[in-house]
Amino acid sequence: SVPLTVGELAKRLKKEPSEIIKKLMLLGIMANINQEVDMDAITLIAEEYGVEVEQKVEVDETEFEQIEEQDDPDQLQERPPVVTVMGHVDHGKTTLLDAIRHTNVTAQEAGGITQHIGAYQVEYEQKKITFLDTPGHEAFTTMRARGAQVTDIAIIVVAADDGVMPQTREAINHAQAAKVPIIVAINKMDKPEANPEKVKQELMELNLVPEEWGGDTIFVPISALKGEGLDELMEMVLLVAEMEELKANPDRLATGTVIEAKLDKGKGPVATVLVQNGTLRVGDPIVVGNTFGRVRAMTNDNGQRIKEAGPSTPVEIIGLQDVPQAGDQFKVFEDEKKARAIAEARAEKQKQKELAQTQRVSLEELFQQI
Ligand code: GTP
Ligand code: MG
């Protein structure tokens, strides 16, 4: 670290301190062995010995995790709610989002099973709403947990002909653990075997009591396939969002979470991120988990190139050095050097942690063998 004492500098250059002191004198700097020399002098002296000095940016990598100083209440503005759709496999989550977006994602999915988190933004009654679709298949527990953590509201979809199933329970647990308000959508009401009363009874046992039975959980009967009950569902989403008073400060450097990430052959690392505070812009130096980069391009959920993305917006970004992990936090920094140094420090820390873990494991193994 800078500054160094004359003695330290001599050691690094593998020279006698007296020699360094002479060189400094020629530069007009009178110094003894314990005196500190600044970066400029170090660079000049090192150059004389053919050593190039690389200036390392000193950073405090915990700056990444530090809770931001509170936003000035005057700067806070209303932001769109982030709504995660969760529930058991095949209960109609993606069909519901298709109907809300008037597109047809389900038809394009392999085997009709969602294997990732889809992120979309729609506009209803001039209000934007961000939706995250999650997989219902039992293999995707972490994705559901992650979905619940970044969301403001959870819509639990339960098929009226099937009732509460294991991943319905799991999804409710995630939402409750994340203290997120729940709206229940009883789906497939068009089916002759639909039994919404049975669904309500089953959910009562999980402490989700409908308003008409004296509770405070909103239930909306829908048919995602026929597009029925969607207006009421959207109204309820906006109502709950309004009660939550969701706010963010668009006039600051962006922070948020990685929804999913992959390596694209042509584009390199691609990450879908949710901006949670601030505004993300093309060109921003960014730390994402243990990697970093500069936002080279941003694409919205309609595949359009955009230049900036405000709070609650899901966007795909390219320009990262590495593929981050879903669930990683991201944070924009004012300069790229700092972003790089922080990411490197974080990666190093992670490496040490993993190393410590493997060392401990092998020690335990050793004891077991004795
Ligand atoms: P995963 O993503 O795998 O968890 O499934 P999902 O919950 O997204 O279910 P998806 O939307 O893929 O729908 C599963 C099947 O249920 C499809 O064949 C849909 O057409 C059908 N389906 C969805 N909603 C309705 C509905 O309201 N009525 C009827 N009759 N069928 C529906
Ligand atoms: Mg789906």
UniProtKB/TrEMBL annotation:
- Region feature G-domain, mapped onto this chain: 81-229
Protein family (similarity comment): Belongs to the TRAFAC class translation factor GTPase superfamily. Classic translation factor GTPase family. IF-2 subfamily.
Name all Tr-type G domain ranges: 78-247
Where found, per UniProt? Answer: Cytoplasm
UniProt binding sites for GTP? 87-94, 133-137, 187-190
The shown chain, on whole-protein numbering, covers: 170 to 539 of 745
What's the protein here called?
A: Translation initiation factor IF-2
Please explain the role this protein plays, according to its UniProt record: One of the essential components for the initiation of protein synthesis. Protects formylmethionyl-tRNA from spontaneous hydrolysis and promotes its binding to the 30S ribosomal subunits. Also involved in the hydrolysis of GTP during the formation of the 70S ribosomal complex.
Origin species, per record, is: Caldalkalibacillus thermarum (strain TA2.A1)
